[in-house]
Amino acid sequence: YADCHKGFCFGIDTKKLLSIQNYYATKKEILTLYRMDYRSDIPNYNFFESMLENYGEKYISHLLLVKSEEWKYEKEYRLSILGHTNVALPIFKEAIVEIYLGCKIKDDNRDAILNTLDDIKSPAKAYQLHKSEIKFELTPIQIR
Fold first, then answer.
1. What is residue 6's three-state secondary structure?
2. Strand ranges for 1-144 from DSSP E
3. In sequence order, what are the residues at sequence separation of 6 or more whose Cβ sits closer than 8 angstroms to the Cβ of residue 126?
4. Which one of 6, 13, 56, 100 has the largest count of C-beta atoms within 10 Å of its C-beta?
């Protein structure tokens, strides 16, 4: 996970995201949940032509939602707040159901995450990922 396996990933209950969408709607913000598109081929777009045809935004957003089909098992979604980039997104603790810690996460970062889960009394499960010695895969081991 992020930064050469030194990061972490949240597992979120997509049904509970509805309450988050409603919260943003009261602030006149549009929060959209996109399902990733897993493919064997890399999309090939001519950006210069697409910009001239006013389709550039469609192609750029599509590229942000395409990943190699080898990641299909993740069943990943991406969240977007219309018209904003690089903004913090508060997520209600009830929506977080699991956290995956990268296999190279620093001990102090892992401890901070686990302590935060305890402090907010989150029921989320936490998993430490380990690299397989014989396959190109990660094995999650529940630690909380």
1. coil
2. 8-12, 31-35, 37-39, 66-68, 77-81, 96-101, 125-131, 138-142
3. 98, 99, 100, 101, 113, 114, 117, 142, 143, 144
4. 100
Cβ atoms of 126 and 8 within 8 Å: the answer is no
* pLDDT for res 107: 96
124-136 residue pLDDT tens? 999 999 998 888 8
- Contacts of residue 68, Cβ cutoff 8 Å, sequence gap at least 6: 38, 39, 40
Q: What is the pLDDT of residues 40-50, one digit of tens each?
A: 988 777 767 66
The reply to whether the predicted model has a pTM over 0.85 is no
For the record, the structure tokens of 106 come out as 């620093």
> What is d(CA 71, CA 58) in angstroms, rounded to the nearest whole number?
23
**Residue range 23-27: mean pLDDT, rounded:** 80
